Amino acid sequence: MRIPFRTLLASVVAAAALVSAAHADQLDDIRKKGEIVFGVLGTDEPNSFVDPKSRELVGYEVDIGKAIAQKIGVKPVFKQLAVAARIPELQQGRVDVLAASLTHNKEREAQIDFSLTTFVTGQKVLVKTSSGITDVPQLAGKKVLTVKGGTQEPNIRKAVPNVDVVTFETTQQAFLALQQGKGVGYVNDEASIVNDYAKLGPAKKDYAILPTSISVEPLALGIRKNEPALKKVIDDTLRELESSGNADKLFIKWYGPSTKLQFDKRTFKIDSDKI
Amino acid sequence: MPHFDLALLLHGQYHDWLAAGLRVSLELAGLVFVLALPLGVVVALLRLAPSRALRALGAVYVEGIRNVPLLAHLLFWYFGAPELLPDALKERLYAGNFEFVAGTVALTLYTAAYMAEDIRSGIRAVPPVQFEAGRALGFGFVATMRRIVLPQALRVTVPPLISQTLNLWKDTSIATVIGVAEMMYQAARVESASFRSAEAFAFATAAYLAVSLAITGLATWVHRRWPVRTL
Amino acid sequence: MIDIVRTYWLYFLVGQYPDGPLGGLALTVLLAALALALALPVGLLLGLARVSPFRAIRWPVTALVHVVRGIPLLMVIFWAYFFLPSVTGHKTGQFGTMLMALVAFDGVYLAEIVRAGIRGVPRGQFETARALGLGYGHAMRLVVLPQALRSMLPSLVNQFVSTIKETSLGYIIGLTEVSFIAAQINTQVFTRATQVYLLLGLTYFVLCFGLSRVAVLIERRLGRRAPARIVRSPGSPTSIAVPNA
User: Fold this and answer.
1) What is the value of pTM for the model shown?
2) Is A251 in the same domain as A231?
3) What CATH number belongs to C2-225?
């Protein structure tokens, strides 16, 4: 049977339209809903945490999320997640974007996509000076404490092959365990460790941050795979923040000399998503 | 979604983690059972004691423990209570596998409270004349219990005690919140490392089910072999 | 301890509400109540399926019941958390996940309570209803079930207490129920861990002990009017393994 060319063309176009309609664009969904859901930790000062007085979620990543929502023209909604739950929640569609101190690494690239790197930090170990430990290799055979489901456990095991690791549901439980002396070291992102160290107040003298970083952690926003429109909008917002100087202002606001972290200046720029 | 990889569960690094978790779960359950049972007997006897003060003590123990979830007990015994100890004792305690110790303490106290109630029901099922006859013959309270009442109570008590053991086995999973490296802890760890949630949880589910079915099978066998005799 | 209460009482009771999702004790009670309310019809259906004359219904449900009773609640929660969205197509949050897991888990145990309750109503009631011209459904709904529910009330209140304790497992998936909030408060006042967790225990105790006293009261009031109930001997194999959360 000879099929007229026009019919063939029409059916091909219809099929293509059906296929693309079946895979709805997430950015369109977000615009239709009128809101974008960011998955945040809410327990990692100053990236995202609950201000005890106002009981509101604030932080470096919260502000970035608000900027992205403003660019798209929708309302930002922030949902608190456990460290171990971040990638599953994104993959299952419970959140639209992850702004949760998420490290961009090769293993995760198979599961999700990443935005431009928004922050670069290392991972360090906090110890009590009474343990007599002055650098990372001395942790061999000792017990360290950290959170479940992040890059901390694999990194410390790589750095110190026969270390004993105990993990808890949240970073604060792990830090509390260190303070109580249940382990000799607490592993976390450097920025978080500096923040916790500062919060110790006068007790600071009993603690020390080991000098060697056990890894370099480029943090970025997490996006589901195959969502090019959403990734473009996010990356564009980040580039605008960088070029307008607002990215630097955000850094100073949350990490600068007037905060607990007291970083003098940024050592990175928001311009690349390569690691 | 990637296909289910059975090989992952049978050998290799992830299998080792999961198998280690199963071992710890079994050790925890076994140890707690051995410790909770005698404690349960003591508390049950407290609740049946002739002295009002002792009875109140038993009641406070049972009600205080049973009305608080196991998760809160675990957090209390790991993060809360030990902090009250003097520093030297604390350091010695923490130097060992304190996670397992705290888990054992919390689970033992918790399970004993439930076992005590089952044992108490079992004792009450024995006709009171048995106890009275024992006292009339000159035995004290404890001796009467030990020689006359408890042996008879045993047959009635065994089935509910076995279902408490089943609960104990399942409750070991909650110890993951204080860092005990039992099966749920390892399953979650495998999931984080490999993103293979189905395989990790299938292993854990199969392991829990296998032991649960074994315990239930034991209950049926016991009931057939030693049926409850009624006077 | 009083100053901890004074500083954090609102956060402990309602979490971040209204500036954020509901949390704390309010969330615990709400979740438990909703879970029990939804688990009742599930328990009823499962109980009916278990006595169904059709093998195609009876066997899979019996297998499901044995599986759910043989694994920890935490396992059910993890399965629900990772696989519910792909099965239902709905993007359930932590509250939804906990709710579904609790309904599935408690529904299985409620099936037994419901069956016992229905059996406790004298057969004469059902027969009279049919003789008066009511259909099977109406006889059940208007005559048997109301009486069955009344006699089940103490067991249901006890199950509510169990469910309240079960909600504490939401801690593990990051649900901001009262145990999670207590742990967060603890990290702010980290030198007072004993006091914070004592307060948490006390809260649960007051809530659960109070409710179980209510159950005893209900049972006493029922004992005055209800006919003789079927009492099972303690050693029988039909004693169900009631979970202690």
Assistant:
1) 0.83
2) yes
3) 1.10.3720.10
